[in-house]
Write a structure and sequence with these properties.
The protein is an alpha/beta fold and 372 residues long. Helix content is 37%, strand content 15%. The longest helix is centred in the C-terminal third of the chain and has 18 residues, at 249-266. The chain is globular.
Length: 372
C-alpha cells in the first residue's frame, strides 16, 4: 500500500540519534536547547519543545490563561486535538466556519463568534497553507484574546516572507512521522511574546520554577510549583533527530513543492475534481495535497483508490461530529462550509520520498476512476 504520508530518515538522522544515545544525556540535556534554537531559526520566534502536537496545543492554551468558563473560538476542520486541548482546561469551544477556498478558519465567521468571554482564537494552517493571521489578529485584539496558530502542517511556510511561528501570539508544531519533519513523536510551542513563552516553558515542566521563589533562602537545590503543569518534556534523543531533520527542511520543502506542482499540472483537466489553491504572498510547505471529489463520489473514489493500493486519506471529520462534542450539545449543520468540504475532501499521497513514477500511478488511478 502506497501511504498518504511517510517520514524521510537518512544516515545523518541515524547518526544523530546514535550520538545522543552514547552521550551523558538522554533527556533534559543540551540537545533540547539546541533543537529549540534550531526551531527558532526557522519559526522566527523562540520555542519550547514538548512531547507531541496535542500537548503543544494544551501547553499553548494553558500559557494563554485558558480556564473554566472561558471561550475558545476555533475551526472544525482539523484533528480533534485543536479543540480538545482547550476543552480539557474547562473552556467552552465555539466553532467558526471555514473559507471555501483554503479550508482555513474564516475571519468573518470568527468576528461573528467572539465575545467578551473569548480567551483565545485558534487557527489551523490547513494542509500547510497559513491562515489569514493579519485579519485574525485584528479580531482577537478587539476582544483581548490571545491568537494561537496550530501550525502542525506548516513549519517552513511563509506569508509575504514572514515565517509561520511569527504570525500568531503562540504557534504550535507537530513532529509526527507524516508531518513536514519528524522527531517520531514530538512538538513545540513558539511565541513572539516572552511572557507567554515563559508560561509555556513552566507548564511543560510540571510547573516547576526556580526564580521568584516565595522561600528564596531555603537552599540552592530548592524549587517551587506555583501553578499546576504537565510533564511534557521532549527527550534529547528525539531532539537530536529533530535538529538533524531541520537541516534537511529546505530540501523537504523543495521536493514537496515539486510534487505539488506536478499534481497541479497532471490533474488540471480531470473532470469532477477540484484542486487546492495558493493565495498571493503565501509560500507553503505543504503537508497534504487535498483535492475535492465532486458529484457525491468521494466515498467511491476513496474505496477504489484503496483497492488499487493507494493510501488516500480524509482530513478531517468535522470536530463537533465526534460523540464527545455531540454529548455536549453540538449539532451537525452548524458549520455548513466545513461540512461540504468534508463531504468532498480526499488527501492524495504526498511525502518527500514519493517518486515521480508512484505519483504518476496515483494520477492515473484517479483519472481512471473519475472517467468511468
Amino acid at each position: 500500500m502506497l501511504p498518504y504520508g511517510r517520514q524521510s530518515i537518512d544516515q545523518s538522522d541515524v547518526e544523530a540519534v546514535v550520538s545522543a544515545l552514547g552521550s551523558d544525556w538522554l533527556t533534559t540535556g543540551p540537545r533540547v536547547a539546541q533543537f529549540e534554537a534550531d526551531i527558532e531559526a526557522v519559526a522566527g520566534a523562540p520555542a519550547v519543545t514538548v512531547t507531541n502536537g496535542s500537548t503543544a496545543l494544551n501547553t499553548a492554551y494553558a500559557a494563554a490563561g485558558v480556564k473554566p468558563g472561558d471561550e475558545v473560538v476555533t475551526t472544525p476542520m482539523t484533528f480533534v486535538s485543536t479543540a480538545s486541548a482547550a476543552a480539557t482546561l474547562g473552556a467552552k469551544i465555539v466553532f467558526a466556519d471555514i473559507e471555501d477556498e483554503t479550508a482555513n478558519i474564516d475571519p468573518r465567521a470568527v468576528e461573528a463568534a467572539v465575545t467578551t468571554r473569548t480567551r483565545a482564537v485558534g487557527a489551523v494552517d490547513y494542509a500547510g497553507h497559513p491562515a489569514d493571521y493579519d485579519a485574525l489578529r485584528k479580531i482577537s485584539e478587539s476582544v483581548g484574546a490571545v491568537l494561537i496558530g496550530d501550525a502542525a502542517h506548516s513549519i517552513g511556510s511563509t506569508v509575504h516572507g514572514r515565517p509561520v511561528g511569527s504570525l500568531a501570539d503562540l504557534t504550535t508544531f507537530s513532529f509526527f512521522p507524516t508531518k513536514n519533519l519528524t522527531t517520531a513523536e514530538g512538538g513545540a510551542v513558539a511565541s513572539i511574546r516572552p511572557d507567554l513563552l515563559k508560561r509555556a516553558r513552566t507548564y511543560r515542566t510540571i510547573g516547576v520554577v526556580r526564580e521568584g521563589l516565595r522561600r528564596p533562602d531555603e537552599g540552592p537545590w530548592f524549587y517551587e510549583v506555583h501553578e499546576f503543569g504537565e510533564n511534557y518534556r521532549l527527550p534529547d534523543v528525539l531532539c537530536a533527530l529533530g535538529s538533524s531533520q531541520l537541516r534537511r527542511l529546505a530540501a523537504f520543502k523543495a521536493r514537496r513543492q515539486q510534487l505539488t506542482a506536478r499534481y497541479d499540472e497532471l490533474l488540471a483537466d480531470v473532470p469532477g475534481l477540484r484542486l487546492p489553491i495558493q493565495r498571493e504572498g503565501v509560500d507553503p510547505l505543504r503537508h497534504l495535497y487535498p483535492v475535492r471529489v465532486l458529484d457525491g463520489r468521494r466515498r467511491e473514489v476513496f474505496e477504489r483508490m484503496r483497492e488499487a493500493g493507494i493510501g488516500v486519506q480524509v482530513n478531517y471529520i468535522p470536530v463537533y461530529w465526534h460523540p464527545v462534542f455531540e454529548d455536549l450539545g453540538y449539532q451537525r449543520g452548524m458549520c455548513p462550509v466545513a461540512e461540504t468540504f468534508y463531504a468532498e475532501q480526499l488527501s492524495l499521497p504526498l511525502f518527500v520520498d514519493l517518486s515521480d513514477a508512484d505519483q504518476d500511478r496515483v494520477v492515473e488511478a484517479l483519472r481512471t476512476i473519475l472517467g468511468s
